[in-house]
Amino acid sequence: MATVSTGGSIVEECDPGDVKGLASFRGGIHMDTSGRLAKWVGRRCCRWQGVSCNDETGRVTEVHLPGFISTVDFVFQSQMEGWFSPSITLLTSLKVLDLGGLAGLSGRIPTSIGRLKNLRKLYLYGNKLRGSVPESISKLLKLEELHLHENSLSGFLLPTLGCLKNLNALLLHSNRFTGSIPASFSNLTNLMHLDLHANSLTGHIPQNIRDLQLLKELDLSDNLLNGEIPASVNNLTSISVMYLDANHLEGEIPFPSNYGQMPLLGFLRLQNNQLGGKIPSNLGYLVSLQRVSLENNKLEGVIPSSLGNLEALTELYHSGNKLSRVIPKSIGQLSHLILLTLSHNSIQGPLPNEMSALQNLQTLDLSFNSLTLNSIPRWVAELPSLS
């Protein structure tokens, strides 16, 4: 391999192992609509499109071949079809491997992936990868982002993923994973994004989820999780998005237990579960809530008047429960409300005149209730945004 010039220019020829690894990857691809791989000729791989090297060592440090290509002049969704060559793991100085969204990359995640000790970002999402996640991925101790979503990966979630303590994003959604959520995930104390939705995960939500103090987004929706929502979620002080919908969760809604908990929670989805009991009045403590859905559960009793404290609320979904009594007058305080759906409950009485203050309301669904309406209130026709 050529040496570095004193002027600091990059090495002319790449490390032989890097060239072999890249050439083998290219050899496994039989279609590339972006045309990038067709330009991979010669041995000066540091000049190849999508390849970056360390100027001093000449080793390949980054491979960027995402399916979505955006430049100043155009936006292009490219596609690669072919086999994911394990030889990519010859690039042992690699820090970033981005093969995300290529749509047609098939095969398995190489069992030798653990050789990439310097890897910080691994993007393999949006492909046709199958099989289990190899155990050796847990050796990538510098890994900060692991995006394996939207593939056909299967098997259990590896408990040893809990060793990757530098992870801030773990996205495994839209695969075929089974089994439970490992308790060891609580060791990922730098995690900010955890998305496991659209798998076939079973068991309970781990109690020790409270240890993920930096977690901003949690999506466990569309799985087969059961049991109660652990009260420990109250300790997620940074959480802004929490989606637990479309599972088999039961019991009462346990949060927040005190004012000031989950102060940043803006988006909450609990619909399509088997949650029971009453809507907790403490829900009014979640002052950052913008959208909340409790649809299609077994909730009963009154709609708490404390929901009128949620000044940022734009969408409220409470349909398909057993809610009764009247709509609280405090609903009229939700000046930013765009959508209100309370259908398929047992709500009674007339509509409170205070609802005439909902000047931004576009969608109102009160169907299939027990309202006593001699006529539609005049103020309904005067809501300026109602469509």
UniProtKB/TrEMBL annotation:
- What membrane topology does this protein have? Single-pass type I membrane protein
Tell where it localizes.
Cell envelope; Membrane
Arranged from A to Z, the UniProt key words for this protein are: Glycoprotein, Leucine-rich repeat, Membrane, Repeat, Signal, Transmembrane, Transmembrane helix
Query: Where does the UniProt entry say this protein principally localizes?
Result: other
- Using the record's annotation, list all stretches that form the Leucine-rich repeat-containing N-terminal plant-type domain: 16-54
What's the short name of a Pfam family annotated to this entry? LRR_1
SMART domains documented for this protein? LRR_SD22, LRR_TYP
Query: Per its UniProt entry, which superkingdom is the organism in?
Result: Eukaryota
- Which SUPFAM superfamilies is this protein grouped with? L domain-like
InterPro entries named in the record: Leu-rich_rpt (IPR001611), Leu-rich_rpt_typical-subtyp (IPR003591), LRR_dom_sf (IPR032675), LRR_N_plant-typ (IPR013210), PGIP (IPR051848)
Of the GO CC terms on this record, one is: membrane
Residue ranges that the Swiss-Prot or TrEMBL entry lists as coiled coil: none
Q: Which family does it belong to?
A: Belongs to the polygalacturonase-inhibiting protein family.
In Swiss-Prot or TrEMBL terms, this protein is called: Leucine-rich repeat-containing N-terminal plant-type domain-containing protein
The protein's organism comes out as: Gossypium stocksii
- Give the taxonomic lineage as stored in the record: Eukaryota, Viridiplantae, Streptophyta, Embryophyta, Tracheophyta
